[in-house]
Structures are given as C-alpha cells and as structure tokens.
C-alpha cells in the first residue's frame, strides 16, 4: 500500500486550507458587495396615493425607465387592483410597469416568482388585507423573497396594508375587541407600523402592540397622506406629521387607558 510522504501530505493540507480561506473571503466579498442601503422603502399611511409619492419612488429607484412590479396580492380582485395601480404609475411618469397577476400565484411557482421579482427595480404594494397577501405567497417564502430583493438593491413602496407588511411581526387586524392580531411580516424595517393612524383612531392599537409584543424599539403611526422614505437605516424624507413611539412611561399609561375603555379601533 502506497503511503504519502509526510512533506507532500502537509503541502496538501496547506493547499486545502488556502482554498477554504479563498472561498471564505470570496463569500464575504460578495456579501459586502450587496448594499442594503442602496434600496429604499417608501411607507405611506393610506388614503389617496399622491403624485408626489410616485415621483419620490421613481427617483429612489433610479428614474422612470426602471422596471416596477405591482404586487396586489392583498386585494380580493387582485388583477383589477394591480392594473389600476399600474395605470396610476404610468400617468405619473413611470414607463416600465408590470403587474404580478393571479395566474402567477395560483398555483405558486416559487422559482419563477423569485426570478420575476428580482428582475424589478421597484416593488409596489397597494393597500388591502396584509394577512391575505401573506397567505397567498406563504409567510416564510414572502419574507425570504422580499428580504433577498431588498438586499439586492430593489426598493419597495407600500401604502396602508402594504406599509404594515414591512414590519415583522406586523399588526394584522384584530384578535378580539381589545387586542391587535400579531402575524409574521416581511421584516424589511426595524419598526412596528400602523396606518390610517388618526383617521381610524389607531393610536391605542399601535401603543398596545408596541408595548406588549416587545418586538421593536420604535413604532410608527402614519395617517392618510403621510409618508416616509427609509434608506440606510434612517428616514431620508418624510411628509406630514408621522408619529414615532419609543418605550416610555407615557406610552404605558396611554395603553392602559385605551385598553380599559376599548378605544382606538
């Protein structure tokens, strides 16, 4: 039986070690080349989407020729809602808009869906039912898909339910008369989000979820017409008077008062 000389054996081990180091540093370099800060999140509080929001989003993705994919899965009549969003985007300057249609997720082909999303430069999430959105894509796949897209520099617009989806966990309607429902979200922003904030008196709901879930260090209430542009871990632009919450004694007392009177629905 042939035995390798000790010298050759040591050289082989050294070569293997060099290859492993090379692969490790290559992987690190590839990860470093993906800059999450290049991608923006535009969160709006619901109501009418304004031309200003569209213009801000188009600028964030690099101009009107960049591809935008409308993903209207939070609406019962998704295709109709998607076409309306696409028409509105085109009316306000977007030149390369497509819609993720119902036939593409019934049944869902994950590989084809992933490829479709990653060809876009911007993903557009209208309002509706955030729970329905996650149900149609599958919560685990949806979260992985959107986080991958965002890491690859794809920006996301969301209004109403579309904005609330960006938290994880997210507020998903009501568990009962006193408790908001907690559900998995996309986890794109480290902030708990509620929308239609003042119009539907959701101050108490957001405060209760923020205090009792202990899932975020900040919470954001967006009223209709208000929006923020989040990029690089902070707010770059905003419109209106978004309300930010942090963990304070004032929040605790407000939550107790709201829960005792069952207000804020």
Any overview of this molecule?
The protein is an alpha/beta fold. The chain has two domains: 1-33; 36-261, Class I glutamine amidotransferase (GATase) domain (Rossmann fold, 3-Layer(aba) Sandwich). It is 42% helix and 19% strand. The protein has a seven-stranded mixed beta sheet with strand order 3-2-4-5-1-10-11. The protein has a three-stranded mixed beta sheet with strand order 8-9-12. A two-stranded antiparallel sheet has the order 6-7. Strand 6 and strand 7 (180-183) form a beta hairpin. The longest helix is centred in the first third of the chain and has 28 residues, at 6-33. The radius of gyration is 22 Å and the shape is globular.
* Overall CATH class of the largest domain: Alpha Beta
Rounded mean pLDDT is 87
Helix content: 40-55%
Secondary-structure-based class equals alpha/beta
- In the CATH hierarchy, what is the superfamily of the largest domain? Class I glutamine amidotransferase (GATase) domain
Compute the number of strand runs: 12
Share in β-strands: 15-25%
CATH-derived architecture of the largest domain: 3-Layer(aba) Sandwich
So how many helices? 9
| General shape | globular
Strand order of the largest sheet: 3-2-4-5-1-10-11
Q: Which regions are unreliable across 5 or more consecutive residues at pLDDT < 50?
A: 21-37
CA-to-CA gap between the ends?
81 Å
Query: How many domains would you count in the coordinates?
Result: 2
Helix/strand order: HEHEHEHEHHEHEEEHEEEEH
CATH fold description of the largest domain: Rossmann fold
The largest pleated sheet is described as:
7 strands, mixed
Radius of gyration: 22 Å
